[in-house]
Amino acid sequence: MNLRIGLTGGIGSGKSTVAAMLVELGAHLVDTDAIARELTLPGGAAMPAIVAAFGPEVQTPDGALDRPRMREIVFHDPAAKQRLEAILHPMIREQTEARAALAGHGQVVVFDVPLLAESKGWRERVDRILVVDCSEERQIERVQSRSGWPADAVQRVMAQQATRAQRLAIADDVIRNEELSLPDLKRAVAEVWANWPRFD
Ligand code: ADP
Q: Which residues bind ATP (predicted)?
């Protein structure tokens, strides 16, 4: 058996940094965002079904999903969003489990799920949920310095994500990444790691 941890946090919270620290401690990381992206790259497993459902115009010349075009379609049409999700979600789930199955005996499996609080069904799929939390001001500041985005672009993404309160409501463990230096964050991650139960 493997302990299964769902890791989430708003954009800029430090979730990816925490994921990397957990890997250093020995976790087996499953990056659900990377899986979702791979499914819609050129030759991606979801592309035939997406093209069948939405037509060849949602494909770039090299056969990847034309993201801006698709975003435009689902923005104006909630039913299209549902159709897209009906194609992608089962595939993401299958791939996620396939990668989780590669974990070693007794290894802690960490599922990095940016939209865990927004998605149905995750609670039942993991033993614990770890939320990386910080203030919205800090989120904006970090994404601005990481990616050079203007503040309003960060705020637009944040507006589409769950609120801090919604994430905290589902958390079993919280790392408050507000005033911590990176070495402090590492210590906080190690403490959470040490307190998790282990299954044989
Ligand atoms: P997320 O995955 O939640 O969007 P990241 O882990 O990429 O966020 O963190 C956003 C940025 O902030 C990165 O450049 C990261 O190095 C930096 N960062 C995160 N936490 C800290 C911290 N405690 N001290 C300094 N920089 C941090």
A: 12-17
